[in-house]
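subagent[fold] <- orchestrator: predict structure for attached chain, return C-alpha cells only, no commentary.
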Amino acid sequence: MTLCLTWIRTIGDTRELVMATDSRLSGACVWDCGPKIIPMPRSDFAMCFAGDTQYAYPLILQIVSAISQHTKSRSRAMDLYDLKGHTLRVFNSLRSLITGLPTGKTLSELMNASITLAGYSWKKKDFAIWVLHPDTISGKFEFRTVKNLAITGDYVKEAKARLYAKLRVHSRASLKLIVEPGLYML
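subagent[fold] -> orchestrator:
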C-alpha cells in the first residue's frame, strides 16, 4: 500500500509545502526502505511518487539529471511553471523510448504510478502542486493541477474521508498531521 500526501500548510503568517509518504518500493518485489520523495538539484521543489517503482524511478532520475545538466534549470533562472513544462516534455520523450511491452498491452495500462511535482514559483510568489499521470487514451503524460492537497496512491478515497472526518471534529488550527518516514518540507 502506498499513500503520498502533498499539501500547503499555513502556520501564522508562514506558508510551507509538505510532502509525506511511506517508504515501500514495489515492482517485481517489495522493498520496505526506499525513498519516494526525491529533492531536486535546486532546493525549491521536489517530486514524490506512488505506484510501480519500475516506471516512476527512471522518470524521476532522468529529471534530476536533466536539471543538473541545464544551467538555467539548476540555478532557478527557470521558474517552476516553466520547469513543469520541461518536465512534461522530457517525460513524454522518454515514454516513446520504452519498448518490449507485453503483447497486447499499452504503456498507460502498465504504468501504475503517479508522480507529484510540487514547489515554489518565484514568478507567482506562491507554491504549486501538480500530479503527473498517463492519459488513458493517448498514453501521453499530463499534469493535473492540485489546489492545496494532493493525495495519491492506494485507498485515496478512504484516506480523504478519514482526513476530512478529522478536520470536521478538530479545528484546522489544532489538527497536526504527523507522517513518517518520508517527509520533505520547503
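orchestrator: received. Logging for downstream: The chain has five helices and eleven strands. The two ends are 26 Å apart (CA to CA).
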